[in-house]
Write a structure and sequence with these properties.
By secondary structure, the protein is mostly helical. 51% of the residues lie in helices and 3% in strands.
C-alpha cells in the first residue's frame, strides 16, 4: 500500500513538472516565442511562363494540418491559367494549320519576316 501511494505521488510530481515545463511556469509570453508563419520560398515566377522545372522545384511549407491552403490555391490557379492560355494558343495554331492544309487554300507561312527598313 505504501509503495502504491509513493507511485501515485511520484506520478503527480512528474505530471506537474511536465505541465509547468509546457505552460512556461509564468515567466512571460509562454514557453515558445511567436514565429511568423512559414511562406512559400520559391513561388512560381511572375515575369515569365511556368515550365516543368518550376513545377518540379515547387515545394509547399508544411503546417499543422498539411499545407497552407492559400499557397496551394495560388499555385493551382496560376497553373490553370497558364494551361488555359496554352490550350487556346494550341487550338489557334491547329486551326491555322488545318486551314493551310485545306485544298485550294492560300499558302500560309509561319515564318517571321524582317521589317522593311532592315532588308
Amino acid at each position: 500500500m505504501v509503495m502504491f501511494l509513493f507511485l501515485v505521488i511520484a506520478l503527480a510530481v512528474v505530471v506537474a513538472a511536465v505541465t509547468l515545463a509546457v505552460v512556461g511556469g509564468g515567466e512571460g509570453g509562454g514557453p515558445l516565442p511567436e514565429v511568423a508563419p512559414e511562406r512559400l520560398h520559391d513561388p512560381l515566377p511572375p515575369d515569365r511562363p511556368v515550365d516543368s522545372s518550376d513545377v518540379d522545384r515547387l515545394r509547399f511549407p508544411l503546417t499543422v494540418r498539411g499545407y497552407r491552403m492559400a499557397d496551394v490555391d495560388d499555385a493551382l490557379n496560376r497553373l490553370a491559367a497558364e494551361l488555359a492560355e496554352r490550350d487556346a494558343r494550341i487550338a489557334d495554331l491547329e486551326s491555322a494549320l488545318a486551314g493551310a492544309r485545306a485544298p485550294g487554300a492560300p499558302h500560309v507561312s509561319m515564318e517571321k519576316h524582317a521589317p522593311e527598313d532592315q532588308r
